[in-house]
Amino acid sequence: MSDGLTYAAAGVDTAAGDRAVELMKTAVARTHGPNVLGGVGGFAGLFDVSMLKAYERPLLASSTDGVGTKVAIAQALDIHDTIGFDLVGMVVDDIVVCGAQPLVMTDYIATGKVVPERIADIVRGIAAACEVAGTALVGGETAEHPGLLAPGEYDVAGAAVGVVEASALLGPDKVVDGDVVIALGSSGLHSNGYSLVRAVVARAGWALDRDVPEFSRTLGEELLEPTRVYASDCLALARDESAQVHAFSHVTGGGLAANLARVLPVGLSATVDRGSWAVPAVFDVVRGLGGVPWSDLENTLNLGVGMVAVVGAAGADAALARLAALGLPAWVLGTVAVDDGAQGAGIVRGSKGVDGGAVCLVGEYRV
């Protein structure tokens, strides 16, 4: 008689999952303040929200996202402790756009085979980014999917919840004629547009270990540069009354114009000067290597602007000073004015289902 099948024989190693948890526990615990109850391994993460009693009208903000095909770069290089910054950045920096403080985050990792050290590296990166964001990593799940994913493949996703006082809610309702649009520099590609970037690299036949003079490092090192996590710095700026912050926009998929339009009210338009900053080398290399039109680049990649703050005209200097003190590169992109209804190339109105204001891109990019 043949031996019966076991779960392990089917490709799932529960013991490996347990080892991964042991390897990551210390990093996760570092994100836990006094509000986190229990430890790692519970069925649910518990977070004491007694502080909400001090709010007049607390609003919960939630977000979920993944890293996208950037994980293919991490897998090819066998470097897994930075991808967590991309995940956390994509999630918590969507929450902070409305002025909410991200309180808790959970993660989900699906893989073809659980390699404890690799899973622990991923979660260590997530935990380190949560520390930067001031967010507790209160739970997660690792799922082994043999036959669906190859042994070396994985994907990551996460979700977070934050809170904002209703009276402090940021967004289109606070943006007015005369506001100033301020850019917060990105750390590189962040975690969007990698399907385009990877296609360009593949067609050019460039290896990830290729030294690229424009980067002063290898192609792989540039492509794996972690996403800048803005949450804590944006909250510090928003709480500085002299900065007069009215709205934030997280520049992710769709590029600068489409995401900025989402936080402008109908009837107002932001004019953005393409020449107000020098586009970082990685974007120009992608453009030149793949013959990618500027119009496609600006609709796909952040081009060096990872977050945008819309502030009152009288608060612009204070906002720039505050961002400089926080160590963030920042500059004036343009201004907000009444929408004249003009049509044409470089003008975007609303995006992703939002019936928002308009953004007009003018001038030429500098490289």
TrEMBL record:
<comment type="pathway">
    <text>Purine metabolism; IMP biosynthesis via de novo pathway; 5-amino-1-(5-phospho-D-ribosyl)imidazole from N(2)-formyl-N(1)-(5-phospho-D-ribosyl)glycinamide: step 2/2.</text>
</comment>
<protein>
    <recommendedName>
        <fullName>Phosphoribosylformylglycinamidine cyclo-ligase</fullName>
        <ecNumber>6.3.3.1</ecNumber>
    </recommendedName>
</protein>
<dbReference type="GO" id="GO:0006189">
    <property type="term" value="P:'de novo' IMP biosynthetic process"/>
</dbReference>
<dbReference type="Pfam" id="PF02769">
    <property type="entry name" value="AIRS_C"/>
</dbReference>
<dbReference type="GO" id="GO:0004641">
    <property type="term" value="F:phosphoribosylformylglycinamidine cyclo-ligase activity"/>
</dbReference>
<dbReference type="GO" id="GO:0005524">
    <property type="term" value="F:ATP binding"/>
</dbReference>
<dbReference type="InterPro" id="IPR010918">
    <property type="entry name" value="PurM-like_C_dom"/>
</dbReference>
<keyword id="KW-0067">ATP-binding</keyword>
<dbReference type="InterPro" id="IPR036676">
    <property type="entry name" value="PurM-like_C_sf"/>
</dbReference>
<keyword id="KW-0547">Nucleotide-binding</keyword>
<dbReference type="GO" id="GO:0046084">
    <property type="term" value="P:adenine biosynthetic process"/>
</dbReference>
<keyword id="KW-0658">Purine biosynthesis</keyword>
<comment type="similarity">
    <text>Belongs to the AIR synthase family.</text>
</comment>
<dbReference type="GO" id="GO:0005829">
    <property type="term" value="C:cytosol"/>
</dbReference>
<keyword id="KW-0963">Cytoplasm</keyword>
<dbReference type="InterPro" id="IPR016188">
    <property type="entry name" value="PurM-like_N"/>
</dbReference>
<dbReference type="InterPro" id="IPR004733">
    <property type="entry name" value="PurM_cligase"/>
</dbReference>
<feature type="domain" description="PurM-like C-terminal">
    <location>
        <begin position="177"/>
        <end position="340"/>
    </location>
</feature>
<dbReference type="InterPro" id="IPR036921">
    <property type="entry name" value="PurM-like_N_sf"/>
</dbReference>
<keyword id="KW-0436">Ligase</keyword>
<dbReference type="GO" id="GO:0004637">
    <property type="term" value="F:phosphoribosylamine-glycine ligase activity"/>
</dbReference>
<dbReference type="Pfam" id="PF00586">
    <property type="entry name" value="AIRS"/>
</dbReference>
<feature type="domain" description="PurM-like N-terminal">
    <location>
        <begin position="58"/>
        <end position="164"/>
    </location>
</feature>
